[in-house]
Amino acid sequence: MTAIVQNVDLSPDHEGFEPCAAQAFDVALYSGNWFAAYSTDGGNTFASLDPFAMMKLEGETFCCDQRVEFVPNLGSFVWVMLSMEGPLILAVATPDEIRASNGKAWTYYHLTPALLRYENSTFDYPQISYGDGYLYLTVDAAGDGGAAIIRMPLGQIAERATVTLQYVKVGSRSSARAIARKVSVGSLPSTPTARSASSPGRNRLPPR
Q1: CB half-sphere exposure, 16, CA atoms < 13 A
Q2: Where are the alpha helices (DSSP H) in 50-195?
């Protein structure tokens, strides 16, 4: 029998529930629109993850629209969440990192609409998928209209390094860069616990 701890709401009749789940070995992630949880015992018990704390690291407010996926060629979980202000966070952690840190150690990328040259948009309805060599992210552009399809090399994400984004929107193709930040979610540090070095490139995000 599965036991839920820390009052994690898994009620399927919650309006706008939008559940998403992923599992690798004995580690599982489970999210809905406004909550997230993890398990390190094959789903027998769950404990809360805090997307609000993650968003606060960028000075933003968590909104909704979370997605979780385990990417075998990356050996990591990917956790996407949307902010009220428009940007999104894409966080990455291995099963071992989740297990050892009680779900608190993540490396994340902060993606803004401006990074994709949207002037009057907020992101909406993010979705993630993967292939042999890339992670794929799709987002609606609420404001400018349309959508964007983004791909990120799995090798760069695996190194927790600067990632060169390739994206398509309104029939055009371009590139940008996102910087990895390593954080401890839950302890609410005023600054991330590690800094990554920036590499040259257009539309770089400042390292944290």
Answers
A1: 8
A2: 51-56, 95-101, 154-158
Strands 45-49 and 3-4 turn out to be parallel
In this structure, what DSSP letter does residue 95 have? H
Show the tokens assigned to 81.
């969440």
DSSP per-residue letters across 22-34: EEETTEEEEE-SS
**Rounded-to-integer distance, Cα 157 and Cα 64, Å:** 24
Sign of the Cα pseudo-torsion (63, 121, 116, 208, in order): negative
Is pTM beyond 0.90? Reply is no
Q: Which two tokens stand for residue 36?
A: 């997230």
Minimum mean pLDDT range among 4-13, 61-70, 116-125, 191-200: 191-200
Tokens of 69: 């996926």
Q: What is the pLDDT of residues 57-77, one digit of tens each?
A: 999 999 999 999 999 999 999
Contacts of 75 (CB under 8 A, 6+ apart): 94, 158
